[in-house]
Write a structure and sequence with these properties.
Two copies of one chain form a homodimer. Chain A contains ten helices and 41 strands. By secondary structure, the first copy, chain A, is mostly beta strands. The structure holds copper (II) ion (CU) (2 copies).
């Protein structure tokens, strides 16, 4: 218990929540809306958090979840990785199946997550699902925000990997993905694209695709189409509002080179404008082929749809659409330029055929008619938006974020010169992505900016030659924006999404529903298939059964039901001498499968200090050589 | 850049470091030595951190490293798990070898780390190495604090797993480990222990052991002996000062039961006192056997050494020695009792043979002569010490920590009634381990207490049915101790060690040493062994070679040298279509091995946003069916 004095301090501290003391003037010392109180009242971080942040894990293979402004890590959602901490291992056949490559049958236990995408309705977050892509192996996963767990992994057809850009339509009815790392596809596709794309296995160039994934009302994903063409693509955004019905993406390697230097030869590259209806029409009209690998996936030729290119600064990376859906900003990452495109003008230019040429039959829109440049810093990367008419542009080389006033009609709101810099926010160091809650939707929540830095250098204490990352939290309701906190994260988080707490908690589940009939503990022996099925329950502080026997070499299938119904009453099941270790949440049922490869007595024990009897919460698997096995050794005969 | 105004605030904030404003009186609102400043100056957390905390990862399989009082995660050190974020995967043959079970040949990719142990000299931390045990598979790992990386994993001989207690002698010349989960060992051991221990494969009881591991001056570990006997053991502490030459451990299941309820039958269990010289004498006298599995490891009988038992409260767990080495406190985790043993009195009782009986030939010391009880709360777990004569006892059921004044000679220092409670510190919730920097050594640094709670419940925002853990930081220079911060961690951290920053940074390495001769990039084809060896360098923003060819089905051995010499200039190597993903730190050389199982073009790319040319930092592995392969397709012919 806190003492009375401490409680009084706590109450005072709680009255001054971060949200209630902010003004638009520069902060003065002493007035500290984001100062951490001391002593800290229990529950402070929970009470003061306003947003969830879902950040990609990069090499972690899943998602980091933290609170804002607490910057406290709440959870990690494993997806493409195994993580016994968070109950995600290949001993669970549901997980193993999701992680099995349908092309090769191999179980992959790592991935490289990049762009988290919250589900949305009318281009605003609805708090139901979270999607993310794996760059390395071209996969998409769907997580349920009721449970914070992965429910589905879709492996992209016809490509070995390299999926980078990933975006959702305004109602999450369609997801758009880009294959960045161009490939030498199956012969059907090479033949269909024809000699014009001129590809060669060894020398290159190669070809690549964008794809659409349909999301059913229950969240289930299915690849709807792929459009293949001569280029590779980096980042993607599906439009809404004024850009509804279109998606756009960047291509930094319009040179179609296979080496680093060659990819920088052209002074400008392209942003592409894709008409979704024209793709769906190609499908409806049967203008596609399918492959032996994926007989259900229409493979469409780039020249059979409505597609336009617009010049953009050298090797563009970020491409982000403003809340109205009218503007798209694209950054030339090896330049000082960010180009702003006005979708209204793009539509007019297309209508008027205001083209300066074509490449591979794709019309190139006159950039003078549709875009303008912001020249304000070196190494621009990504762009996010707030609700006040500003965008935030990250600069890798300058190590800062520029706050830029948007053009019409936002200038009526902010009163600044359109496309002028109104604040320069320091970063530590080398900005990659950045995030404003809701900053890629029609309804940014603003208030905070998270800068996701790529280098950390001296920010935290020394910790060896492999350095953590640094997410920095800034207050963007104030100019100059003050730094609130710095958060270290393992390497290397890419994009993130921030969403108000209430949008997530409205769907929240704290325990799983118990089945109407609880399983009867016991062991079934299947001599034909050499498989023992163990039906087990766990509760503080017992496994039932707490002993089972199995002939050596058999498959073991443990079906565990956690019968607890209290929040935080997770139990674990770790098996000594074997590589099996899992957690089972309150109310949850889990299956664990493994082979009883070696003989002896192996204790299974609970991984969680769930009660004072925790150490004693254990049981034995006794593996007996097959030659010594007799039915008298079955569990039911011994118990 | 921070604005001038912000810098002024920052400087003011930095002048009030946490260490300079603490008193022993209760804090008042307004005086906030641990308040977080706003705006936060860059570098604040680094400048104000005084200690490193190395916390066990539990199911994470390695170590968490965070700063104190920042409570910012700095790093994770992977050990028994794979973690591409921190450069630790089985594609690296050095890692794979460490993770291969010598008994079964299986590669295990998970573990359950429990008790981190910092190396020490004269029972004080020296900042060189960190050791930790894996409970599930009975392994010990050694990490180098110069690099924060694992250098060695030792698999315990003759046991399948279940190692819990783990401790270091005062000069880290000897590590002591306990096997908690009793086993049915190889026939040689069963025969040697004899009928007296009465074991049965199916019904139990079983037997268990403690073992000693010698640590060479270069850190290399080797099992020196195992002492087998009728009991199983939980926590262990090697003595120093007054208890030098002995180690002690707890046994909660002196009933030798194989089920939970049976383990609680006796009202009291034992703390054991082991004389190390007597064990070494047994080895010297040849009083041991060895097994076929481990011909180098002496297996000693409990009855051939000097071993004593002392009664302790029902099902003891924690067992921790005070800074002088004189007192050991043991907690009866299912009771309200913590028993304090005076080692001086124990030695006297042994000398005077003040025994109340024996069990399995082991004398039982009269508890009245050596110990007393503290009866102060329900569910005592672990104990830590400060430098002022107090200990801190965690209570699982009461969810608090009691600060207790120690007995003679500490009472001259603190002035309280010996063994009286002087503060009750709240915890959220259910205390497992706890940690005071240096709190298990002859030189506690005191100042802070970290409470490692087992349940979190409502402490942080909702995040689904699987809840994070909560490490709480308290200021123990003040009574009542105020809460400074709460830190969420993935499940489930056990013990931790805190050490002053300077003791670690004195040995620190920020980049690896480059080899005197850099390797020449190229590809060697070994047709006899069907193996391609790729010698590669990486630097911003190129892999050299950026293309190689290989016949399908061959082994690929990629030898990568990162030639960067700047802190934080790690590069990654991720291979599309395959499960290969690693990082290579500045100056580091790494080997990655895999099989080229499927044909096609597979890009490898850098996982780290290392420069503005990062996206373009990539190369191709071209896998060609063996039937189509000709030497003209070798890299050197194509380049
Ligand atoms: Cu449990
Ligand atoms: Cu790189």
């Amino acid at each position: 218990m806190l003492s009375g004095a401490a409680l009084a301090v706590s109450a005072a501290a709680l009255l001054c929540l971060p949200s209630c003391e902010q003004g638009s003037s520069a902060p003065s010392a002493g007035a500290s809306p984001f100062a951490r109180p001391f002593p800290m009242p229990h529950g402070y971080w929970k009470k003061t958090d306003e947003f969830y942040c879902f950040a990609s894990g990069g090499q972690q293979g899943g998602i980091y979840v933290y609170g804002m402004p607490s910057m406290k890590l709440l959870s990690e959602i494993p997806i493409f990785n195994v993580d016994p901490r968070w109950g995600w291992t290949t001993a669970n056949p549901e997980v193993r199946e999701m992680m099995t490559n349908p092309r090769t049958g191999e179980v992959l236990i790592s991935g490289d997550t990049h762009h988290p995408v919250l589900s949305r309705k009318d281009a605003k977050y609805d708090g139901k699902w979270l999607f993310i892509n794996d760059k390395r192996n071209a996969r998409i996963a769907r997580m349920n925000l009721a449970t914070f767990r992965t429910e589905e992994i879709l492996w992209m057809e016809n490509v070995p990997g390299g999926m980078h850009g990933f975006s959702s339509g305004p109602n999450t009815e369609l997801l758009i993905g880009n294959i960045e790392l161009e490939s030498y596809p199956a012969k059907e596709i090479r033949d269909y694209l024809g000699a014009e794309v001129d590809i060669d296995l060894i020398k290159g160039p190669y070809v690549s695709c964008v794809f659409g994934v349909k999301v059913a009302p229950d969240g289930t994903m299915k690849t709807a189409w792929q459009v293949w063409g001569p280029w590779q693509y980096d980042l993607a955004r599906a439009g809404w509002g004024e850009s509804d019905g279109w998606f756009i993406n960047t291509a930094y390697n319009t040179e179609r080179s296979v080496n680093t230097v060659g990819m920088f030869k052209r002074p400008e590259d392209y942003v592409f404008y894709w008409n979704i209806a024209s793709i769906e029409k190609a499908v409806a009209d049967g203008k596609f082929i399918t492959t032996e690998e994926a007989p259900d996936v229409p493979v469409i030729k780039w020249s059979d749809i409505e597609l336009y290119a617009a010049p953009c600064p050298l090797n563009p990376h970020g491409l982000d659409i403003d809340p109205t859906g009218r503007y798209a900003l694209s950054s030339g990452k090896a330049t000082t330029l960010v180009r702003h495109y006005d979708f209204r003008k793009v539509m007019k230019a297309i209508e008027e055929q205001n083209f300066i040429g074509e490449e591979f039959g794709v019309p190139i829109i006159d950039k003078e008619a549709i875009s303008g440049d912001i020249d304000t810093g070196l190494g621009p990367t990504h762009i996010e938006y707030d609700n006040e008419g500003y965008c935030y542009i990250g600069f890798f080389v300058d190590s800062d974020v520029k706050k830029v006033a948007l053009g019409d009609p936002w200038d009526k709101k902010h009163g600044h010169e359109p496309w002028s810099v109104v604040d320069t926010i320091p970063a530590h160091y080398s900005v990659g992505h950045l995030m404003v809650p809701g900053g890629d939707s029609a309804e940014p929540y603003g208030k905070y900016l998270v800068i996701m830095n790529k280098l950390t250098k001296d920010t935290f204490l020394h910790h060896g030659p492999l350095i953590c990352e640094n997410h920095e939290l800034y207050d963007i309701e104030t100019v100059p924006a003050p730094l609130i906190d710095q958060m270290s994260l393992p390497p290397e988080s890419h994009y993130a999404q921030g969403i108000p707490v209430s949008l997530v908690t409205q769907h929240a589940k704290s325990v799983y529903d118990l089945p109407s009939t609880l399983p009867t503990p016991g062991v079934a022996y299947d001599y034909d298939n050499k498989k023992a099925t163990v039906t087990m329950t766990c509760v503080r502080s017992f496994f039932t059964p707490d002993m089972f026997t199995v002939p050596q070499g058999w498959d073991v299938d443990v079906q565990i039901q956690n019968v607890e119904m209290s929040l935080d009453m997770t139990h674990g099941w770790a098996l000594t001498g074997y590589d099996v270790m899992e957690s089972i949440d309150p109310g949850e049922h889990k299956t664990l499968q493994f082979k009883a490869t070696h003989e002896g007595v192996f204790w299974y024990y609970c991984l969680w200090f769930c009660s004072e009897l925790h150490m004693e919460m254990r049981g034995r698997m006794i593996v007996i050589p097959e030659a010594e096995w007799t039915p008298e050794l079955e569990w039911s005969a011994l118990k």
